[in-house]
Amino acid sequence: IFNLIEKKPISKEILIPISIFEVGLSPLEAVCEYLKEELDFNYTKIASLLNRDSRTIWTSYNNALKKRKEKLPVKESKISVPASIFKNRKFSVLELLVSYLKDNFNLRYSEIAALLNRDERNIWSVYNRFKKKKK
To answer: Taking the complete model, does pTM exceed 0.85, yes or no?
Structure first.
C-alpha cells in the first residue's frame, strides 16, 4: 500500500530455486527450461532477463528438451538465486552461480557441489576462474 501511495515500483525479482541445477543440464539450459516451463516466459523475455540473444535461449531450451523428456523437478529449497545475476556476460552462467553461492551464502565447495550435483574439484576450478577473470 505504501508503495502505491508513494508511487515506488515494487521490486519483483525472479528467484530460481537451486534444485533445478542438479538434474544434469548445463546451468543455462536449466534456467531456460525453468523460466519457459514453470514461469511461462517467452524466448524474448528470457533473453532480455538473462542478457542473451533469443536464438541462444531457443537453442539452450531445445537442448534441454533433448536431454530430458520429463518435466524439470522443482523442489522447495532454502536457497534461491535471483535471475539477474546471470546478466553479466563477462562470466559463464556456472561461474556466476558458484560465485553467488560462495559469496552470499558462504558455502563450502563440497556444499555447492552437492547442491549442483557436480564434483567439488570442478566447483573449486570454476570459482578460481571467476576470481581470475574478476581481477
So the answer is: yes
